[in-house]
Structures are given as C-alpha cells and as structure tokens.
Design a protein that fits this description.
With about 230 residues, the protein is α+β, with helices and mostly antiparallel strands. The protein has 6 helices and 9 strands.
Length: about 230
C-alpha cells in the first residue's frame, strides 16, 4: 500500500512473491496467515483483499506493488495480467532511472579523473579545434579556462589545421604515437609537442573526434609565432 512500509522479513506473503517471482492474490488480507505480521496494518487501512505484484528487473525481484481492495473480492486473471503489465512498466522506469543515475555518477567520476590527471589530455575535431581539455593541458597552453581553448579562432589556432588533418588521417588507420607538431599557446608562444592520439567512434563506427595525450618536447625553448 502506498505510504505504508510493509516489512519483508518474517512476512510470508512478501517472501513468497520474492521467492517465486509471481503475483499473490489474497481475498482475506485481514485474516490470511500469509499476512499475519501485517494484519493490524490491513485492518487499520480497511484493506479486505490484496494483490501483491513483483517488480522485476532483468529477471530479479527488486520490490513489490500492492493493489488494495476495500471490499472482499477475488482478483480475476485479466486483472492480475493488467497489474503485472503495469508493474513491468513501473520496473522499466525504475531501471531506466537507476541506469541514468549510474551513468551520471560514472560521468562525474570520469570527469574528476580527467581533470585531475597529471598528463595533458585533449579532444579535438578533424580541423584541430580543441573542444575539451583537462587542467594540465590548459596549463601547457597557457590558458585559464576551457572556453579560451574552444573559442580560439582559425586565424590564430592552437593546433595548425593542416597538421590536425594529417593527424586525423593517420588516426583513421589506428592509434598514432610520437606525432611531433607545434602548438600555439595563448600568449603567442610556439611549443613543440609530441602527441599520442586515436579517433573516438560512435556506435555505428563513424569517426567522431580525436582524443589523445600531449607531452612538451624538452630542450625546446618557446618561440614567438611568426609568419
């Protein structure tokens, strides 16, 4: 019953539904021995007959739904079938909500790991336009926020479009390692870097974006961008 906590332990009716994964119809809820632990609850609520439906997710019972009747009755097979269908729909909604919550938590954990990673990580389109970068990457580029990286225009790109196109073509064939190129920092300084990258694809296998890591090549002093 909605708004009422029905105990599971030592409750034969609920245990029956959990064990057998089938509905249980009780015509005399106030006296049936299967509901002995909750007879008082049934009487207080005026419930005469009760139908208990299991909530099933991937073949397992995650809970139950009770259909109360304030008059004595026998639940028909059609009514039980309808209640089972309603419970199945409710279980699907619960499963979807649970999956979305798990996905949200996973995304948060991934983002925390992404942002706190000591290595420089980026994601970019085929033209080299960076749309995601962690804190280490932003520091390497001399930028204070991801928005600065995302809004770099084509007249002053972080990653030269021709070089990005070459990297994209190589990555279409597999993971690229030790790809040496030059990045433009926010202050106009040029730095030589080595990239490891691959292409992330959608479920259909279509290429979506580049993702990879960057390491600044040591012993290479920064140079001002020139013509």
């Amino acid at each position: 019953a909605m708004g009422v906590v029905i105990p599971v332990s030592n409750n034969p009716a609920t245990l029956y539904v959990l064990k057998n994964k089938t509905p249980l119809a009780l015509s005399d809820a106030q006296n049936d021995f299967l509901l002995a632990p909750i007879h008082d609850i049934m009487r207080q609520r005026g419930v005469i007959s009760l139908l208990i439906i299991p909530l099933m997710v991937q073949g397992e019972v995650i809970g139950t739904i009770g259909v109360d009747s304030l008059e004595p009755r026998e639940f028909t097979p059609q009514e039980i079938e309808l209640a089972v269908s309603a419970a199945a729909a409710a279980a699907q909604m619960l499963e979807k909500a649970h999956a979305e919550e798990e996905l949200s938590q996973s995304e948060k954990k991934f983002r925390q790991l992404f942002d706190s990673a000591p290595i420089c990580i980026f994601r970019a389109g085929a033209s080299g336009q960076i749309f995601d970068a962690n804190a280490s990457m932003l520091e390497l580029l001399g930028l204070s926020s991801l928005e600065e990286a995302c809004h770099s225009d084509l007249s002053n790109p972080i990653f030269d479009p021709e070089e990005a196109g070459r990297l994209w073509r190589l990555a279409l064939e597999g993971t690229v390692t030790d790809f040496v190129t030059r990045f433009h920092r926010g202050n106009g300084e040029c730095i030589d870097v080595s990239l490891r990258a691959n292409i992330s694809r959608d479920r259909a296998g279509n290429p979506e974006f580049l993702e990879g890591t960057v390491a600044k090549i040591s012993n290479q002093p920064g140079r001002q961008a020139g013509p």
